[in-house]
Amino acid sequence: MADSRFFTRQGPFTLGMLAELSQSSLSAGADGDQSIIDLAPLDRAEAGDIAFLDNKKYIAALENSSAGACILDPKFADHAPSGVALLLSDQPYLAFARVARAFYPQPEIEPGISSGAHVHRQAEIAAGCRVDPGASIGAGCTIGEGCHIAANAVLEEGVSLGVDCRIGTGASLSHCLIGDRVVIYPGARIGQDGFGFASGPGGHLRIPQVGRVIIGDDVEVGANTTIDRGSGNDTVIGDGCMIDNLVQIAHNVQLGKGCVIVGQVGISGSTKLGDYVVAGGQSGFAGHLDVGDGARLAARSGVIHDLAGGQDYGGAPAIAARQWKRQLIAFARLAQRKDEK
Predict the structure, then answer these.
(1) Closest by alpha carbon to 16, among 101, 78, 87?
(2) What is the DSSP secondary structure assignment for residue 191, as one 8-state letter?
């Protein structure tokens, strides 16, 4: 059960209601009127809880679970204890996400501008917004309806937010235009100078970075992530991108729609990722590259040349996943042979 000091639970819900909102189907014999009061992991769930299974490594936990109900793929249904009602889905994790959002929806903000906030008289803040103590909003900023600017966040001159955005504690935004329903987590840095300079015998000469950061709708930017503004062209983050914590996105980078960028990824300047690219944790991209739509990179991949879309890659330098796995197996066998000599 979630800690009530931090999370407010909705419900209870009947199994029938949860099946409908999760787009799942009830197993034969399940009671659609059965009441479910909370979410819980398989190994901690009780009779009033709903759990989920989407990985076969947890089948033993399912077989020993005391949950009242479980969301799972039909292929695992035979492993459920007889007393557990089942919500069957070909996408159990997505179904669980829908259920979880019903029990724990995004909290409604309480509108109001704190007397401890610093809001320039030339800033425009729409109705229904909340601005917490210590936040600073500069001249020419425009903030759409329903936004929440958390404590000590900074919006420098001219920054624009769409509707229903959430700017986390201590985040800083400059030189950027932000779409609707964007979440920027605490400590993120958006729009600072890119890493641009010319080097010569006398040292390094900083090049003015005169582009912007353009972030589309329904984007999330993780805590302590940095997105540099463009040097001339803009840095662009497409609609629906999910960016994890501690990611570095350099100047002029362009992400297409729906990209997933996992923690500690670094993307060098002017590299373009197509739609729905997935970059595993600690992957690195050299500059001025093109990565095609739907490419998927394993963790710690190193991308030093263009990659075609619709394929899986791994290794450093990144190569087709099948080839990379063969190489790993071959290296392991060579090492084993050497040890046996």
Answers:
(1) 87
(2) S
Give the CB-side neighbour count of residue 120, counting CA atoms within 13 A: 17
- The total of other beta-carbon atoms located within 10 Å of residue 323's CB is 12
Distance of CA 47 to the CA centre of its chain: 32
Residue 341 — very low, low, confident or very high, per pLDDT cuts 50/70/90? low
Contact 303, 284 (CB under 8 A): yes
Q: Which residues have CB under 8 Å from 327's CB, separation 6+?
A: 315, 319
Q: 88-125, pLDDT tens digit by residue?
A: 999 999 999 999 999 999 989 999 999 999 999 999 99
What are the tokens at 247? 């990611």
Distance between CA atoms of 256 and 239, rounded to whole angstroms? 7
Quote the pLDDT of residue 338. 66
DSSP 78: G
The burial class, CB within 10 Å (0-12 / 13-18 / 19+), for 141 is buried
The one-letter amino acid code at 260 reads: V
Give catalytic residues, as residue numbers.
Answer: 251
Q: What is the DSSP letter of 190?
A: E
Q: Do 150 and 132 touch, CB atoms closer than 8 A? A: yes
The half-sphere exposure of 181 on its side-chain side, counting CA atoms within 13 A, is 7
CB-based burial label for 195 (10 Å; 0-12, 13-18, 19+)? middle
| DSSP for residue 27 | P
19 pairs with which residues across the strands?
none
Where do the domains of the chain lie, and which CATH numbers do they carry?
Answer: 13-103 (3.40.1390.10), 171-322 (2.160.10.10)
- HEC states along 81-117? CCCCEEEECCCHHHHHHHHHHHHCCCCCCCCEECCCC
Calpha distance 52→38 (Å, rounded):
12
The model carries a pTM of 0.92
